[in-house]
Write a structure and sequence with these properties.
Blueprint (H helix, E strand, L loop, with lengths): L1 H6 L10 H5 L10 E3 L11 H7 L6 E5 L4 H9 L4 E4 L4 H11 L18
Length: 118
């Protein structure tokens, strides 16, 4: 995934676990998180709430092999910026990341196009 993101012009920072990510004290100004729903320990769906409880307004894009209606609904409820089923179309992922990082400081998107979560 890191190689794909670099090829798309992004600068990925890889974390080995959600706990490692949650130890960070700051994030780049225009960042988003790409996470799987299934993670060791906590569910990836817990991530947006855990970030918010620490005062971070960072868009989370889920990429998962679990593509059920229930999982997609839960992802929307927790505020996912996007949800993709594996395998992911490269360009669609790049577009979603570009859209997500265009948010302003209030969490509003500055893009001029409509956002589709699925």
């Amino acid at each position: 995934m890191a190689r794909l993101l670099r090829a798309g012009g992004f600068i990925p920072v890889m974390m080995s676990s959600m706990d490692e990510l949650l130890k960070l004290q700051s994030f780049p100004e225009r960042a988003c998180i790409l996470a799987d729903v299934r993670m060791p320990g906590k569910s990836g769906l817990d991530l947006p709430g855990l970030l918010a409880s620490r005062g971070f307004k960072i868009p989370v894009i889920f990429v998962s092999g679990q593509d059920t209606e229930e999982t997609r609904v839960k992802a929307r409820r927790v505020g996912a910026a996007h949800f993709f089923h594996k395998p992911v179309d490269d360009q669609a992922l790049f577009d979603a990341i570009s859209w997500a990082v265009q948010r302003d400081d209030n969490g509003q998107n500055n893009a001029n196009h409509t956002h589709n979560q699925e």
